[in-house]
Amino acid sequence: MSEIKKAVVLISGGLDSTTCVALAQEQGFEVYGLSFNYGQRHTAELDSAAQVAKTMGLKKHVVAEINLRAFGGSALTDDIPVPKGRNSAEMSEDIPVTYVPARNTIFLSYALAYAEVLGATDIFIGVNALDYSGYPDCRPEYIAAFERMANLATRAGVEGTGGLNIHTPLIDMTKADIVRTGIRLGVDYSITTSCYDPTEEGKSCGQCDACHLRLKGFREAGQTDPIDYV
Questions:
Q1: Domain spans in the chain, listed from the N-terminal domain onward
Q2: Which of 49, 51, 101, 128 could form a disulfide with 13 if both were Cys (CB 3.0 to 4.6 A apart)?
Q3: In contact, 21 and 86? CB cutoff 8 Å
Q4: Which residue has the higher pLDDT, 156 or 55?
């Protein structure tokens, strides 16, 4: 009987990470979801992450508590307005204020710790280097550097019992490619949310960078986004 392959998948409740869950499952992994309550502007994404975990049959879903609001420095963790109404050209000009300093490094470090406890050698993260908002911790060279570091910093890496692999299956996809992939795999995007600044009722604003990229992806994929917008 073959051993069950375990993978830690970072899930935010958004389009990208939910597609990552489906891809990990397609590859035969038993998925352990990891989300973060990190002091972000809203917790609607955690509600979506919990729904994704339940609907998609994850083995376990852990929500780690981190207070990045103690540092601030981002529109997602501080009293800084979320940019609205920007086009793709404006979004690519510089690193936006919605970038949370070192967030993916912190998240991947937690995922690394969780993977060690589980005896897993695989981590999935839904970073994307094409249709993205200029985040430096979504680039392929960053992921490769973190993977090298992880294999120097873990028992399995040092003892040679199994190197850690960080999977970034969406990194070279457009948002339209991601949508098409998820639809092929039967992902229910109606339970996801991507908005940086949703209403109290959980409706997406339709104007922030995340909404712009998501709507663009569905439009270019010839699909209708099933979530509610203001």
A1: 5-220
A2: 49
A3: no
A4: 55
Architecture of domain 5-220: 3-Layer(aba) Sandwich (3.40)
State the DSSP string of 39-98: S-S-SHHHHHHHHHHHHTT-SEEEEEE--GGGT--STTTSS-PPPBS--HHHHTSS--TT
The DSSP element (H or E) to which 117 belongs, if any, is: helix 103-118
The 10 Å Cβ neighbour count of residue 185 is: 15
pLDDT tens profile 34-92: 999 999 988 899 999 999 999 999 999 999 999 999 999 999 999 999 999 988 778 87
Q: Is 185 helix (H, G, I), strand (E, B) or coil?
A: coil
Q: In what order do the strands lie in the sheet with 122-124?
A: 60-65, 29-37, 5-10, 122-124, 165-167
Q: Would you tell me the crossing angle of helices 103-118 and 140-153 to the nearest 10 degrees?
A: 40
If pLDDT is split at 50, 70 and 90, which confidence band does 95 have? confident
Q: Which amino acid is at 163?
A: G
Q: Rounded to an integer, what distance in angstroms lies between the CA atom of residue 203 and that of residue 139?
A: 30
